[in-house]
Amino acid sequence: MLRYLLLEALRHFARHGYEIIKWFEERTYGKYSPSPGNVYPTLQLLQDEGLIQVQKQVGRSIYSLTERGRKELASQEDWLAAFWERYARPVPSYTTLPEVSFLQEELSDLTRVVEQGWPCAVRHGDSEAILRMRYALEGCQNEIRSIISQCSASRPVCDEARPPEARE
């Protein structure tokens, strides 16, 4: 995984190792920060494979992609898109962090309750309970979509959180 991310970090600009690590931190909003102990050996491996080249400048090594590295990177576009979809989201601000943590805990609890509840209803053949659970979840989803749409309408930067059908 790291090899493709390092190639991605060098896609547009040559960088030195510290810049690459900082680029990861900024691009993932602090959610992913590879250690120098992982970055530098992987950079050496990429150099050995001819995917990057290195120029020495005043005590630093500046890394850049080779043509072969660009081709390797192009072969991983789907994987990279999936990675950035997952990691390139802003982290909550200090003031919203407690509520976001609570929201995540509640979502985990809801998932646990539903996963424990529906098998019981299935075992007892209670199709009415299963249908009521489904309707409750659909109602919850619709209410949350409404909240997201209101947030997105007033703040265009939130558009990525809206369901695709609400973005039009």
Automatic annotation (TrEMBL):
Give the Transcription regulator PadR N-terminal domain ranges. 6-74
Cite the InterPro entries for this sequence.
Tscrpt_reg_PadR_N, WH-like_DNA-bd_sf, WH_DNA-bd_sf
Q: Which domain of life is it from?
A: Bacteria
- What protein name applies here? Transcription regulator PadR N-terminal domain-containing protein
Source organism per UniProt: Dictyobacter aurantiacus
